[in-house]
């Protein structure tokens, strides 16, 4: 029988099954994982009935939190009306979501198109193909940036920076060079007629929440236009309202006030609010035509359920004023975090928050937080990341930050104890 999802009964009904899961996952993640069984709003419960406040939203995915009634209703209704159809056909939610994305990005006015996929990685694979199609024998370089994360399939991995992820799979698809992120001179002087595309995250997520310096995106845009290279933004993590604007490249904190339009942009994560989906948004007709039918295609990409979920996410963000709400969270976080011992820097862009510590204990803080009922994340030894559901209230974040000094103390003690044993 199916495992119970009721935290009160799962401990008895599903105990053996959960134990098997834990053992299996130990091999995958290296440490025993807690098995989560239920979520509602910003709270999730594990199989033992412990409650956690979710400040990660499944890595910037659950924009509306867990089990949001509008999302549940949209997906349920869609599945009971029209489920899977394959890419021989289109469907009403698919067309509507494509239209909404073009409208929100401003690409509708310039003849844009949306190609759907099932994840951020897959959307970036499509972007890689777009770059290759734009290129030729002489226009063969693709510029990415250091500390970038774009996914782990072969093409996406070629764009991703971390050597640790890349090395075992060499040789990766060629032509990709990584330049220092935010170094305007380095990027602008590297762009010439041999460059097919530049791809970057307007706000890097996996590197610990680092935004482009003001004016950087504008300068890169100008150089790409001048030399005929495509500019592609990976907004998989930073898009869909996460930074307080629909897309981070529309955020004046990130652009320095300039209007910067890419030639293409990839989305996933928050777009489905928890249902897998990805999208490559092409901003112009010419860019859209680089990929024809058959050059991008997937069985599930743009399926009715996922696109109905995307529409529900967009409608709820609009209906509940979540962009404005999220913008205010950043100020609350910065205020509450100032003066906390061992906190060196806070970078908050709406609901995408990086906290640098002056000691290498971020993973131990994550563990201490989990024990205390908070789900947070570390992107490196020094850096904590928060990417809560957009619906979270500022008081919940303030409460976490009030507890952070105690969590840091616990992490310091745990790290010292480990070092001395
Ligand atoms: N691009 C960025 C900026 C990401 O942060 C991620 C995931 O963290 C990806 C791409 C990969 O997306 P997915 O895990 O949906 O394949």
Automatic annotation (TrEMBL):
Cofactor needs: pyridoxal 5'-phosphate
Enzyme Commission code: 2.6.1.11
Keyword Repeat among UniProt keywords: no
Enzyme class, UniProt record, top EC level: transferase
Record-stated family: Belongs to the class-III pyridoxal-phosphate-dependent aminotransferase family.
Name of the protein described by the UniProt record: Acetylornithine transaminase
InterPro entries linked to this entry: AcOrn/SuccOrn_fam, Aminotrans_3, Class-III_PLP-dep_AT, PyrdxlP-dep_Trfase, PyrdxlP-dep_Trfase_major, PyrdxlP-dep_Trfase_small
Molecular function via GO: N2-acetyl-L-ornithine:2-oxoglutarate 5-aminotransferase activity
Domain of life: Bacteria
Native organism taxonomy: Bacteria, Bacillati, Actinomycetota, Actinomycetes, Micrococcales
Keywords: Amino-acid biosynthesis, Aminotransferase, Pyridoxal phosphate, Transferase
């Amino acid at each position: 029988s199916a495992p119970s999802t009721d935290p009160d009964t799962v401990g008895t009904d599903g105990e053996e099954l959960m134990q098997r899961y834990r053992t299996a996952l130990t091999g995958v993640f290296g440490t025993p994982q807690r098995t989560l069984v239920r979520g509602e709003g910003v709270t999730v419960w594990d199989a033992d009935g412990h409650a956690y406040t979710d400040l990660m939203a499944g890595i910037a995915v659950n924009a509306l939190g867990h089990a949001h009634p509008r999302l549940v209703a949209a997906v349920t209704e869609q599945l009971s009306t029209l489920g899977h159809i394959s890419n021989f056909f289109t469907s009403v939610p698919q067309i509507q979501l494509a239209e909404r994305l073009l409208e929100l990005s401003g690409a509708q006015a310039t003849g844009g198109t949306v190609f759907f996929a099932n994840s951020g990685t897959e959307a970036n694979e499509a972007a890689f193909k777009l770059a290759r199609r734009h290129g030729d024998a002489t226009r063969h370089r693709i510029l990415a940036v250091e500390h970038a994360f774009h996914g782990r399939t072969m093409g996406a991995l070629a764009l991703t920076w971390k050597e640790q992820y890349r090395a075992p799979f060499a040789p990766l698809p060629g032509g990709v060079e990584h330049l220092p992120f935010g170094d305007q001179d380095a990027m602008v002087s590297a762009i010439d007629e041999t460059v097919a595309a530049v791809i970057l995250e307007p706000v890097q997520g996996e590197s610990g929440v680092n935004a482009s310096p003001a004016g950087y995106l504008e300068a890169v845009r100008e150089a790409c236009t001048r030399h005929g290279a495509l500019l592609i933004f990976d907004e998989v993590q930073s898009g869909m309202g996460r930074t307080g604007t629909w897309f981070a490249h529309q955020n004046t904190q990130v652009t320095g006030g300039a209007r910067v339009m890419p030639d293409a942009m990839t989305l996933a994560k928050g777009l489905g609010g928890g249902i897998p989906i990805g999208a490559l948004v092409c901003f112009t007709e010419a860019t859209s035509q680089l990929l024809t039918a058959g050059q991008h295609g997937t069985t599930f990409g743009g399926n009715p359920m996922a696109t109905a979920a995307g529409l529900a996410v967009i409608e709820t963000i609009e209906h509940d004023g979540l962009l404005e709400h999220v913008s205010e969270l950043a100020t609350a976080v910065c205020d509450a975090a100032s003066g906390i011992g061992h906190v060196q820097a806070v970078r908050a862009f709406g609901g995408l928050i990086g906290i640098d510590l002056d000691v290498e204990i971020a993973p131990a803080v994550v563990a201490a937080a989990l024990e205390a009922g908070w789900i947070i994340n570390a992107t490196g030894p020094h850096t904590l990341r928060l990417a809560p559901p957009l619906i979270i209230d500022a008081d919940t974040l303030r409460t976490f930050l009030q507890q952070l000094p105690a969590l840091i103390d616990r992490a310091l003690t745990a790290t010292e104890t480990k070092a001395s044993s």
